[in-house]
Amino acid sequence: MSWARHLLIPEAKNDMQRELHFTANYNLGLGLHPARWRLIDNPAQFLDVNAHIEVAQIAEKAGFDAVFLSDFQSLPMEPPVEPWHALDPLLALSAIAARTESVGLIATVSTTFSEPYELARKLSSLDHISGGRAAWNIVTSYLPEAGWNFGMDLPTHDERYDRAEEFVSVAKALWASWGDGALLLDQAGGTFVDWKKVSHLNHVGMHFKVRGPLQVPTSPQGKPILVQAGSSEVGLSFGARHADLIYSLQTNLEAAQAGYRRTKDAVRKAGRDPDRTLFMPGIYPVVGSTEEEALRKVERLDALRDLAADARWFGIRLGVPLGGEDLDKPAPTRAQADFTPAVSTGISESTWQMIERRPGATLREILLSSQGRNRFIAGTPEKVADEIELWFRSGAADGFNVSATHFPDGFSSFTESVIPILQRRGIFRSEYRHSTLRGNLGLGE
């Protein structure tokens, strides 16, 4: 019996009726570990749509709610020593849609470098193509070099969120511009559309001027699932108003519980039902027949890491200049920060918290122990399942965004060994019950 079941932990409302939700964080098409590309059979799979499709099919076989494709609009600031975000998420997910039936499709698209009408049309198209499985991870972008690729200096944090607020409001209005029953398709009577049920927006705002209506009739979900991950006060407030699913970077139970409460309170204050906005921290599981075997898998990858390059990127996340010469020095402190981190507030803060939990550790020790910004769990399938159940039952998560050291093998070891345990415990479904992503997330059809 699971050790987690013996703990006195507070159960969430209607806990016996709750089920876990999972999305697959298909990072770059390769995985989360910095040396992932040196171990896999095909290091070019970040450009191979068939590799993307294979991972989505593994996720679907396991009953995952969705696959999630992150994105950036530029190469990294540091010359990359590993693969980067290359394929456009919407195009990759359209290909995945044709080769899957039930798994949801989460595309990351920036409101800073897009237009509401264009994106509303693309997402409605993906929802039609997939039969109701489209989702939009709303980002405002934070890399200065992304702005330069679009002929601008990156607006300030709050300016980007001002634009995002208007952007999402316009997109929602476009998705609502087709009323119920507007598309008649009355062949006998010769009436294709009841245009009285289709409305113009005539929106004129600070950032956008959009006439509407959308040229794509209402899609199976009405509008895509909206996903967001902002952790600043502005970002949290934005997510509370709009998001169906909120991602979060959490590395320990207590912080995750606090983040869960903070998020649900913000949703409630925004006048929405907190049970209809899912809080999903990231987890990074490595599974072995024993804990020692799981750790050996990580050590094998760690031996292939370019730690000097990792140190430079780590410094960019903190606002501290770091390099290979700093690896055996004490990890930096906040007092050493002397430039603005080129990452989101949440990434920077979670990185600092990770360091502060290891007082006296060297930079090398931090890099080798952190394994990313998400909750790292190495161990047997039972141990990983216990940790997931503990977070789920103790008010720390509605589900998880699952990363892996490398795809597909690091991911399939989780789906084939941990998911069946969670199903036997009755906290994860054995089959899809709905035709849309919204339905499978428990947010209504």
From TrEMBL:
Keywords: Flavoprotein, FMN, Monooxygenase, Oxidoreductase, Plasmid. InterPro entries: Diverse_substr_monoxygenases, Luciferase-like_dom, Luciferase-like_sf, NTA_MOA. Residues 48-396 form the Luciferase-like domain. Gene3D superfamilies: Luciferase-like domain (3.20.20.30). GO terms for molecular function: monooxygenase activity; oxidoreductase activity, acting on paired donors, with incorporation or reduction of molecular oxygen. Belongs to the NtaA/SnaA/DszA monooxygenase family. This is Nitrilotriacetate monooxygenase.
